[in-house]
Structures are given as structure tokens and as C-alpha cells.
Amino acid sequence: MFNQPSLGFPPGPQRQDSDAPIRQTDTDAAVARLSAAQKQYLNDPFVKYLVPRAQFQQPRPPLINIGTYVRTKGIDDLVEEWLSRAAKTGKQCQIVSLGAGSDTRFWRIATGPHQDVIKSYIEVDFHEITTKKAMSIKKSRQLLEILGNPDEIKLANGGTALHAPKYHLLAADLRSDPVDTLQELLTQPSNEHAILSAECPTLLLFECVLAYMTVEASSRLLQWFVNYFSANGNEEVAKANSPLGCIVYEMFGLNDSFGKVMLNNLRARNVSLPGAEPLTTIGSLISRFLDSGFQTARALTLKDIRRSYVESEELARISRLEFLDETEELDLVLAHYAISWGILIPSPADQDSWSDWRLREKDHPEEEHPF
């Protein structure tokens, strides 16, 4: 619901392009984010430049706005913690957003307190998505100004890619073998340096992406990054490499009655979730990281995050924005979405600085939860 067609949407028309319904979920998520920003759940002054006809989009219901807020809050806090740790160690870091779609995170970081911590920000998605995003960026003076020197902002690969001093927008099908796709895109030197450096602390973001590919494909993708940062098991080489973190947001636990309704509704829109259906427990989300070579992993449902990982002042503020009379439905939906994260620390010297990267519980008074 928070990066997929709403349960209340009617089935869309049949399409010849089998990936078009998956790409449509990016538009759904962008419109949901726009709605949450307009209703003041979130501060995102950039999303309107990436949503077609933003001024004519209808606001989403409170349930979707709150879900979008909780999802964003959880991921934002983890990213903030990552950037803070990089700053404390005196290193710049990289963020690789896979299946980034219309996300605005680069612009939010680039205008925030940690703008100097970012060495490079890399986004990868279907070429149809990256072409559309590159065009939106080129048409927006506000987005372009933040990218830097206009002479250093270049379209590439027929308009499917865009490169700026710190920002790279790249096209690839993440379901394909990363050896055949990402390896050349990210690790082959362009001019002097490869886009992706294993010597920089690097954070991977998958926001409702892995659910749309098979477990085999997602595991292969995660394993490729682990191999790159662990130097394929060469401990001496790996000691020079920096930590690799990964955040995944997705649906899970779809084997119950509510989950089956979600799946059926998506199937009516020609969308399937081969990567989500096998993940029935929080433990299965954690195991995916550990099985791929990450050293530690954790996971929380959005329901958990809303109740224990959002400041009480924020909960009170959110409760005043809109009236919500569907609290039981909200809890049910949030219980079927999770944020999980894992970390690989190739060098023992980095253990003390990075091993405790995580979301942190907030102190709440004993009064009744505000929503």
C-alpha cells in the first residue's frame, strides 16, 4: 500500500508490457509521498518536480499518509545514523539506491547537514524510469542547481543515464545477473575512477524493490555487493575496504488472510510479488541478509516502528494532522510491511565504529498512544 497500488484501486487495463505494472508502482509511491508532503507529514520540497501534473494529484487517505510517514521515518533515521557514523570516522560515504524510481533522497541529503559526507549517490532502475527521471531533472532548475556545475552534468547512453559530480543515474534491470549488468556500470573505471569504491562506507537502499523479483535474483544481487566489499573472501585485500550496509523496505507475511487479499488485489493489476511470498516471518527477512554474507541483521515491522521508534512529540504532531478512524486497519497494514537492515564490516578496525548501526527506540511517556 505504501509502494504498491492501494487495496481500494480498481484493476487497471491489460498491458502488453509485462513490466509496466511494476513501473506504475513507482508513480503510486511518488504520489503517496507528494500527498504526505502536502499534508505536512513530511518535509520534501523536491517530490513535486518528479510527479507528473503534481498540482492536479488528489491527496491520499490518512491511512496511506501515515504509512508513508512511518516508512520514511524509519528509513530516514537509519540513513541519518549511517551518515553520522561516516562523519565521525572522517570518511565520505556512498549511497546506492537500487530501484530508486522517483525518490528525492539525494536532493534532501544534498541540502541537509550531511551534504559534505556524500562522496557519491548512485541510483539504478529500469531504463524507462531513468529516462523519465533524467528528463524531469533537466527540466527543473531547482533540481539542477543542487547537482552542481552545469558543465559537469551530462546525459549519457541515449538519455537513459545522467552524471553529475556527486550524482549518477544509471539504467539496468536488477533481475539480471549483476555480473552482466552492474559490474560494468559500477566498477569499470570511467575516466579515472570507478563509480563504486569499496574503500568508502557504502549504504544500499532497496525500497519495495526485492519483492518484485525472485528470491534467487535478489540473493544473487545482494551477494554480488558482499563479494565486492569482501574482496571475494581475500581477507588481506578486504582489510582495506569499508563497511557495507543495506536497508530493505518491503511487504512480508502475506500467507495470512490479509496478505492474501493484498496479493489478489495486486494480481488483478498484473503485479506479482515472487520475492515477498516466501518471506513469511521477521526471521526470514533477517536470514536473507545472513545467508548472503552480511555479518549482522535486524528487522522491524512498520507497526513496531510507529509504536516504539518515533518520538512522542512526533506522534502527537502526526495525530493532529488528519482524523484517522481506521486504527485497527492501520495496525494490520503496518504489520505486513517491514524495514530490515544488515551490515558487513570487512576490516576488524571498523568494528567498534560501525557494528552497532541500527534504529534506536525512543522514550515514551506512559500515556495512551496518540494514534
From TrEMBL:
It catalyses: [phosphatase 2A protein]-C-terminal L-leucine + S-adenosyl-L-methionine = [phosphatase 2A protein]-C-terminal L-leucine methyl ester + S-adenosyl-L-homocysteine. Residues 1-21 are annotated as: Disordered. GO terms for biological process: methylation. Signal peptide: none annotated. InterPro entries: LCMT1, Ppm1/Ppm2/Tcmp, SAM-dependent_MTases_sf. S-adenosyl-L-methionine binds at residues 71, 99, 173-174, 207. Its EC number is 2.1.1.233. One of its GO terms (molecular function) is protein C-terminal leucine carboxyl O-methyltransferase activity. Coiled coil: none annotated. Keywords: Methyltransferase, S-adenosyl-L-methionine, Transferase. Methylates the carboxyl group of the C-terminal leucine residue of protein phosphatase 2A catalytic subunits to form alpha-leucine ester residues. Belongs to the methyltransferase superfamily. LCMT family. This is Leucine carboxyl methyltransferase 1. The lineage of its organism: Eukaryota, Fungi, Dikarya, Basidiomycota, Agaricomycotina.
